[in-house]
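Lecture 7, part 2: worked example. A protein chain together with coenzyme A.
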Amino acid sequence: MASGTGRSTSIDVSFLDDLAGDARSRAGLLRALRDVTGAPGQDVFSASADQILTLAEADADRYVLVVRREGQVAGVGVLHPGGASGEMLDRLDGARPQDVVVFRGFLVDRHHQGVGVGSSVAASLPALVAHLAERLGREPFASVVLVVDADNVAGRRAYSRAGFADRGAYVDANGRTQHVMALAVA
Ligand SMILES: CC(C)(COP(=O)(O)OP(=O)(O)OC[C@H]1O[C@@H](n2cnc3c(N)ncnc32)[C@H](O)[C@@H]1OP(=O)(O)O)[C@@H](O)C(=O)NCCC(=O)NCCS
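Predicted complex, written out as structure tokens:
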């Protein structure tokens, strides 16, 4: 539903539920999404596509996004309303959990990295979050929030170019510094 052109390549991002008309097409899309793989060493930045999708399939509040480039599945992401952690909410100036959508489980396939896919998806998030509020029949969400590893240069760059502000950092259970980044969407 949201589309754009990243460095002369056509990129679109859709909710899996909107693309998958029937069980067969859903299964086919899920297979292609599970094949999305990061580059060596990137597993410190995100879970595998399989782990991302397994969690999403088990949780009705996680909405899977299908990222396509030139019609090919190029990435996966998840919008998770109400999923903000304490570390996130502590840095959102008293936002109500129900007004915040978490963007998580974002992975661009290694063959499609570095050509603007991540930036294009980040720029599409306000439209995607507005669409999610509509489909849930609720008032617009106030903000979208995510965490990104301090060493994740491409991720931090893509999010800040899309307008996300760094709201502060914390050290996670693995001793890695994670930045909370947020964008007002209402
Ligand atoms: C992070 C990620 C989503 C970015 O997606 P992408 O499609 O590769 O990003 P883009 O091509 O849009 O590049 C974004 C910016 O980072 C820069 N960049 C891309 N790869 C880079 C690299 N390896 N090192 C430094 N900068 C890099 C780009 O030049 C661009 O900056 P610019 O707009 O100033 O030119 C992708 O690399 C990825 O899936 N990584 C593994 C999983 C992950 O980190 N997920 C995000 C968790 S928060």
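The first helix runs from residue 16 to 19. The CA atoms of residues 68 and 74 lie 5 Å apart. Keep this in mind for problem set question 3.
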